[in-house]
Model the fold of this input.
Amino acid sequence: MNSRERVMRAFKRIDGLPDRVPLQFDLCRRLTDHFAEELGIPADYTVSYYEDLTYRISANDIRTQLGSDCIVVGGSVSPEFVPLFITDNISTNEFGMHMKPTPLYMEVVKCPLDYVESVEEIDAYCFPDPYASGRFEKAKRDIERFGSSYFVIGDVEISLFEMAWHLLGLEKYLVDMFCEEPWIEKINDKVENWTTGLALQLIEAGVDAIWLGEDLGSQTSTLISPDMWRNLFKPRYARMIEKMRAVKPDLIIIMHSDGAVAPLLEDFIELGIDVYNPIQPNVPGSDPQELKDKYGDKICFFGGIDQQELLPSGDLDRIRAEIERRVKILGAGGGYLLAPAHILQADVDPETVKAIIEFSNGGYHVNTEP
Done:
């Protein structure tokens, strides 16, 4: 059973159970560089149009050789884009956001539409072209190389709410949304069209799944009320999913949201979403047994291993026990793709990464399959 079949069985698209629960993981730059040196493989970075997604869609050579059953591909920054340097360490991205590097990520220090007070100003803003030539060159290359053996996820996270607030600034976006300012719908339209364009190109390129989503929750609740999300964003997701499935009816749809978003799970299921990610531990509504009992026959699960405290601790006995627990509960009868609940961060030791792989698939090894 190859990796692609293993995931397809886990997600109930092929009859029968997988031989084991499949595994997926993403590596931050520090870990990518470490394993690149250890394995003797160049660290192949695909720079995303939004920099924090770079680590989702990079280094598929490394992750497959380490033991991932999945690759992740997505849109890169347009080859024609030339960033403007504001200072020595602050530059613009395609959206005009001012980006500053931090030890882990790129931080948005100025939003390009923080001044907006009219629909006309949104109309005048030059949104990047999702169909820019060369944006999916690396995605197509990796699909060609890995697609027959590995499950291919097309990443278009930061799909609606999160991309929109990064353009206006979170406080301004939330206040303007609550005040029902007319330019909110206009910017949401532009973001929806952007995300739809990216997703349709990835589907045409041959992905098995589209990974939608954004962080809709805090450690204690949703960031906006479930009713507001249903009114403003659920219809947009419904339109996007309809257009995607018109091209590929058997497309697997993954929805990502960090935080306490259990109140939205029924909505995800109504939208026809197949997989819920990342099942962030340690927030209300994330108990694996309750999720499996209530939703296990309606939606699959992806994620679940705590990146906030457990994995940085390096406590291998606890990590093994938690992986075994998640596999036993969420993997019962299929329906589970095991993964950390976040990109593996720089505070996770490389030896801990190897242990996660060993505990997940019965032994750490370097995969020699192409």
About this structure: The longest helix spans residues 182-205. The chain is about 40% helix and 15% strand. The two ends are 15 Å apart (CA to CA). Residues 3-81+135-361 form a domain with the TIM Barrel fold (CATH 3.20.20.210).
